Amino acid sequence: MDKMVQGKNLILVVDMYGCPNRCRHCWLGHMPNRKMEDSADEWIFNYFKPYFENITYYSWLREPDFCDDYRERWTKDIQLSRGIMPQRFELGSFWRIVRDRSYVKFLKEVGVKRVQLTFFGLEETTDRYVGRKGAFKELLQATYILIKNEIAPRWQAFINEGNKEEIVQLLPLIEELNLYDRCAEFGVPFSFFVHAGSCDGENRKLYGIRINKQDIPKAIIPYFLHYDKVKTEREWCELLKEEPKSVMYHNEKDIVLNISNCFDVYFNFTHMTPNWKIGNLKEDKREELIRRIIDEDTQALKLAGKISIGELVRKYGDFQSDKAFEVGDYKSYLLNRYIDGQ
Ligand code: SF4
After folding, report:
1. What is the pTM (predicted TM-score) of this model?
2. Looking at residue 1, what is its pLDDT?
3. Pairing outcome for strands 254-259 and 324-325
4. Residues with Cβ < 8 Å from 121, sequence gap 6 or more?
5. Where are the domains of the chain?
6. Which residues are near ligand 1 (CB < 6 Å)?
7. pLDDT at residue 2 tops 90
8. Is residue 157 helix, strand or coil?
9. DSSP 8-state secondary structure symbol assigned to residue 224
10. Predicted local confidence at residue 164, as pLDDT
11. How far apart, in whole angstroms, are the C-alpha atoms of residue 91 and residue 142?
12. Which atom belonging to ligand 1 lies closest to the Cα atom of 62?
């Protein structure tokens, strides 16, 4: 028991099955799908068991329930967890909703009240951004199935310079499909919001077409997430150019570990690239890996501490850019520019 880390909860989020999609905004970054061996869950749990009193286990890191035995899987996640049980949040797999009619019943049974569905525009664009033909139609079908089962669909849309007009066209589509009234009939709220997403993972590759603040269509502004907190890159550059602090990521009571299908471990700070890796469960010494977790000792965090936000702005900020950012996303973008160049 002397090894026990006091005052911290551990949340293990493991990519045991992969994801049916390859979204172009995916903050995690694209990884090959590889089913981990069935015993990996217990092995990973036991790895951390001597060190943490409370451990919550999730068998999915990407889209949930991408395994046929999702019911048993969920039960196993609960059985494995100790102290704090896993939650469902607003997550569900639209891929599975349209392929397996009993899946929506399962979502209801486990208390899912709302499922988020992601659009990138109309059919062709959404299919292209999700990386799968048929995705848009499936999203619409999933919307109906959820409503009929009294689960609220929450549509989110990612906007950029390339798809901004199509995002506007989602508004008449919502009207045409009568989604607010349909939902009301089944006693659930319909909601829709738009944002530009963070600028890490795959979405960072879309920096070139990131939406300019003044190009956000007027009709979309009421739906734009935290619009009052969004500024242009040039405004952030001016505001932050003398900032002496560094970009800091830090775990409070909960330590969330994202674990890839080859046992690489990351904090859930920004994306999963080599500099952000804490280590590998199979390759590194366990005591050392636990130390790195507790001390938050990764190459990326070391680098982050060596440079101020002001320096990042002066090195990588574009004082002419009108690209729209919330401050946290902009700082991550700048920091990753620096880290990737090391
Ligand atoms: S955003 Fe979610 S659904 Fe899309 S590729 Fe990433 S993990 Fe899969």
Report:
1. 0.95
2. 45
3. unpaired
4. 129, 157, 163, 166, 167, 169, 170
5. 7-87+253-284, 88-195
6. 19, 21-23, 26, 28, 62-63
7. no
8. strand
9. B
10. 98
11. 13
12. 7
